[in-house]
Structure formats: structure tokens, C-alpha cells
């Protein structure tokens, strides 16, 4: 179910805008001062309360917790069941963060990522995306949501934007605490600036070499890297928030001097942060992460050359919940065959 359908259902039950807001805030576990810990039942008119039982059951059916795998650093991989028997994964991150999925699988097929290995199985509805936040908040506080789980948000743009809109309003999350992570697609740069809530942007770059990027991200849009960075910079200027460039660090592939020169050439003077994410192991893939000291030295060199760079080791790797380790796990009926992405 989509958020707009959820809102339509409420209106059909007779909810006024203030009721609709309270019910959505209750779902997202946001308490206003006046409502305190009261549930919707305590302040809604009787006529509306009567229809709410079925409505609530519908919301609860959107997503359910199948299992949770915690690590000592306070992160946990959550296996989330959907009404049709499919599953996605969300990750509770340290410091009240949550990583959510936007699709079951992914069509981009990045060579180093588990999620892309079986292609795209289906899009998540906006209700299923927001449902992951509601579910996580039933476990613990969530103050930041990153779209870095399964899927490429630009391939499910309308639903992701609808989810962001609700999370950034009734969900009590500031736009800087919503992070849209993408390989980059012209539609993202057209559409995101038009949203009421403009999330922070993470751009998965991985290399400054066009030919290598096309091999590593085989079905990402073929945009010249310089153009991609220019489009991202324009978005950063509009939102006054830096672009977070993502760089999955692969030993012997994108960790050399040529790449460091390329990063400096592309990003010097830009409103940008370079996040270096050492590769997380995925079974059967021919990649490895360079030694930690090499990654730290790259960061030091970038700093010396005027680039703000951070080493971001993924949380929850021990339980296969690190960046790129998420996948649809077998549950219930046989998984449908992958489908091709339809480009607008
Ligand atoms: C799983 S993707 C989801 C969001 C979006 N599809 C994207 O690529 O930005 C989130 C981040 O995980 C990174 N990633 C994928 N596979 C990885 C791996 N095996 N090790 C470390 N990072 C990985 C991606 O490069 C991307 O920056
Ligand atoms: S890294 Fe992102 S775009 Fe690439 S396959 Fe994984 S989920 Fe898809």
C-alpha cells in the first residue's frame, strides 16, 4: 500500500486532517506534547475509532519482523517480511541511525554488491519503506534514515520520494537526517529538488575513471563522471548540504595514486565529503579490502590535498548487514524471477 492510499482510506473513514496527522504520527511512533503517550483511540471521534481496527491491521501487515541479528556495537540486521512473502533487510545503525531498503533486489548489478546479484525482484511501496522505520522505532529510537539498504532509490523514485515526504514531516526527521544514496540518474537531479523535503544526497562514485565505473556499475546510467559531480554540486547548493560521495574501496582496483589525483581534480573546492567504505566481503566475489593502514593513508593524503574525507567501516558486517551484504533471503513462496527495470 502507498502512503497516498493510506491517506485516502483514512479520509474515507471520516478522518479530518488533524486526525490523519495524529494517526500517521502514531504509526511512526512520534508523540506530540499534547498527545503525550495517548493512542489514537483516546482522542478520535467514536465514528472513526470503529473503522480503525481494520485500518491498523492493514498497516501492521505491511511489514513484520522475521528475525533480528545484533552485533556488540549496537547495530543489528533486521529481516523484514512483506505481505507477499518477499523479504528485505533494514539495519539498525549505531547513534540512532537506520538503513532502509527501497527495492527487493536491484537492477544496477554492481559487481561488488550482493543485492544486485539476482537483479530486481520488485519495487517497495512507499508504505513498505515507511513501515521499516515504524518497525525499527518499535525496537529503539531512530533519528536518522539512510537509503543505503537493498535497492537503487532512483529506480523507485516516486515511492521513495513519497516516503521521504512523510518521514520528513510527520516522521519528525530533518532533511539532513534523510540520506538518499544513488549511483546517479538524471531523474534524481530533476525530481529531488522539487520535493517538499529535500534529503541529503550520497552519490556512489567508486572511481574517477569512466571505463572502470561502467564495468563496476554495469547498468548505472551512462553519465560522464564530471557531469554527475556538477549535477550533485548544483543540488548541494540548493540544499546547502554537502554531497556525500561513496567509495567502496577495492584492493588493487580503485585504491591507487591515479584515483587520489582524480578525486582531488574532481572534488577540490566542492561542497563535498568523500566517504571511503572498505569493501565488505560477499561470498564468491573476487574482491578484497586493502590493508587498514593503506585506507587510513589515503584519507591522510586527501586531507593534505584539501579534500574532506572519512573512513566509514560499515556497521553490522559480522551479521552480513554491512553495505552491499544485504539480500533477499529465502522465505515463504519461491522468489519470482527477476524483472528488467523500465526506464522513464
Ligand atoms: C547497497 S547501496 C544502496 C544504495 C544505492 N543503490 C547506491 O548504490 O548508492 C549503498 C552503498 O553500499 C555500497 N556497497 C555495495 N556493496 C558493497 C560492499 N560489498 N562493500 C562495501 N560497500 C558496498 C555501495 O557502493 C553504496 O555506496
Ligand atoms: S550498490 Fe546500490 S546500485 Fe549497486 S547493486 Fe548494490 S544496491 Fe544496487
Automatic annotation (TrEMBL):
Gene3D superfamilies: Aldolase class I (3.20.20.70). Its cofactor is [4Fe-4S] cluster. Pfam families: Radical_SAM. It is found in: Cytoplasm. The keyword Methyltransferase applies. Keywords: 4Fe-4S, Cytoplasm, Disulfide bond, Iron, Iron-sulfur, Metal-binding, Methyltransferase, S-adenosyl-L-methionine, Transferase. GO terms for cellular component: cytoplasm. Transmembrane segments: none annotated. Residues 92-318 form the Radical SAM core domain. Signal peptide: none annotated. One of its GO terms (molecular function) is 4 iron, 4 sulfur cluster binding. GO terms for biological process: rRNA base methylation; tRNA methylation. Belongs to the radical SAM superfamily. RlmN family. NCBIfam families: PRK14464.1. This is RNA methyltransferase. It comes from Noviherbaspirillum galbum.
Amino acid at each position: 500500500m502507498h502512503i497516498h492510499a493510506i491517506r485516502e482510506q483514512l479520509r474515507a473513514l471520516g478522518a479530518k486532517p488533524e486526525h490523519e496527522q495524529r494517526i500517521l504520527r502514531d504509526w511512526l511512533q512520534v508523540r506530540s506534547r499534547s498527545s503525550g503517550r495517548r493512542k489514537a483511540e483516546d482522542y478520535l471521534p467514536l465514528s472513526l475509532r470503529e473503522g480503525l481496527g481494520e485500518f491498523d491491521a492493514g498497516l501492521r501487515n505491511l511489514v513484520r519482523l522475521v528475525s533480528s541479528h545484533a552485533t556488540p556495537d549496537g547495530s543489528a540486521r533486521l529481516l523484514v517480511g512483506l505481505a507477499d512473502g518477499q523479504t528485505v533487510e533494514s539495519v539498525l545503525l549505531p547513534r540512532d541511525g537506520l538503513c532502509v531498503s527501497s527495492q527487493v533486489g536491484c537492477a544496477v548489478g554492481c559487481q561488488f554488491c550482493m543485492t544486485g546479484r539476482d537483479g530486481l525482484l520488485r519495487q517497495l511501496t512507499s508504505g513498505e519503506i515507511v513501515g521499516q522505520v515504524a518497525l525499527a522505532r518499535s525496537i529503539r529510537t531512530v533519528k536518522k534514515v539512510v537509503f543505503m539498504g537493498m535497492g537503487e532509490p532512483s529506480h523507485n523514485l516516486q515511492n521513495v520520494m513519497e516516503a521521504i515526504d512523510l518521514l520528513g514531516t510527520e516522521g519528525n526527521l530533518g532533511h539532513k537526517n534523510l540520506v538518499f544514496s544513488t549511483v546517479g540518474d538524471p531523474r534524481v537531479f530533476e525530481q529531488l529538488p522539487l520535493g517538499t523535503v529535500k534529503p541529503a544526497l550520497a552519490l556512489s562514485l567508486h572511481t574517477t575513471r569512466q571505463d572502470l565505473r561502467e564495468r563496476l556499475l554495469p547498468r548505472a546510467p551512462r553519465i560522464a563522471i564530471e557531469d554527475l559531480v556538477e549535477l550533485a554540486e548544483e543540488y548541494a547548493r540548493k540544499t546547502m548540504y554537502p554531497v556525500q560521495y561513496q567509495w567502496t574501496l577495492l584492493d588493487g582496483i580503485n585504491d591507487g595514486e591515479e584515483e587520489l589525483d582524480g578525486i582531488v581534480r574532481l572534488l577540490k573546492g566542492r561542497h563535498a565529503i568523500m566517504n571511503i567504505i572498505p569493501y565488505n566481503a560477499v561470498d564468491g566475489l573476487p574482491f578484497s579490502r586493502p590493508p587498514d593502514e593503506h585506507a587510513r593513508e589515503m584519507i591522510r593524503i586527501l586531507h593534505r590535498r584539501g579534500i574532506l574525507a572519512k573512513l566509514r567501516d560499515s556497521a553490522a558486517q559480522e551479521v552480513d548487514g554491512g553495505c552491499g551484504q544485504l539480500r533477499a533471503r529465502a522465505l515463504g513462496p519461491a522468489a519470482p524471477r527477476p524483472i528488467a527495470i523500465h526506464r522513464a
